[in-house]
C-alpha cells in the first residue's frame, strides 16, 4: 500500500477484479497515491467496497470530488467482471462521476512491453484448457491483433507458426507449464510476478481513456459456463430453453 499527498480534481479511482487478484488504486497518470491488492479467488465481494472506503479515507478524499472511476472490463472471470462493473456503476451513479473502461490484456502488456525486444504474447486463463490470447509489439506494447479465446492446443499451434522470437506472460501459462515449454522451447516465459498490471500502469491507461456517463461494456469473448449448459439449467427449472436463451443479452456480437 502506498499513499502521498492527494489532488482530488485529477485523482482517478481504478478497480480491477478480472482475475483472482483484486486491485484498487487511487492516483493519476503522473503518480500513484494509494493502492491495495488482495488475492481473492472467487470471493472479492466482501473486500471490494471496504478497500475503496479505506483508500478514500487514507487519502482523505471524497468520492464525489474525484475526476472519475475506471474499471477493467475484461476479458476474464465472469463473476469478477460482474462484481467490479456493477460496483463501479453504483459508485458512479451515487457520486455523479463519469466512467471509463480498461482492457485487461493490453494493461498487462503495457507493464512489461517497454522492457522487451521481442514480440509479446499475453495468455490469460479463460477456462479449463482454454486461454485468452493477444499479441503486442515490443517497447510500445501496441496490439497487432484483437484478443481471442483459444483452446490450449490451438493457442500453442498458433504461436508455433510465428516466425519470430516470442516472450509470453499471463495466468494461462501457469496451468500445464510443461506443455507450454515443450511446444515453445525457444520462447521466453516471464515469471508470474508480471501476470498482473502494475497499479501505476492502470492509472496511466485510465488517464488516457475516455470518461463518459455511459458504463463500460464487459468484454466477454466466450459464452459463460451457464450459457453453455443453459438447456439443462432451464429444464431443471421448468423453463423453455429457447425462451431462456432469448432472454440473455448477446454480449459477444
From TrEMBL:
<dbReference type="GO" id="GO:0002949">
    <property type="term" value="P:tRNA threonylcarbamoyladenosine modification"/>
</dbReference>
<feature type="region of interest" description="Disordered">
    <location>
        <begin position="233"/>
        <end position="253"/>
    </location>
</feature>
<dbReference type="InterPro" id="IPR043129">
    <property type="entry name" value="ATPase_NBD"/>
</dbReference>
<dbReference type="Pfam" id="PF00814">
    <property type="entry name" value="TsaD"/>
</dbReference>
<dbReference type="InterPro" id="IPR022496">
    <property type="entry name" value="T6A_TsaB"/>
</dbReference>
<dbReference type="InterPro" id="IPR000905">
    <property type="entry name" value="Gcp-like_dom"/>
</dbReference>
<protein>
    <submittedName>
        <fullName>Peptidase M22 glycoprotease</fullName>
    </submittedName>
</protein>
<feature type="domain" description="Gcp-like">
    <location>
        <begin position="48"/>
        <end position="134"/>
    </location>
</feature>
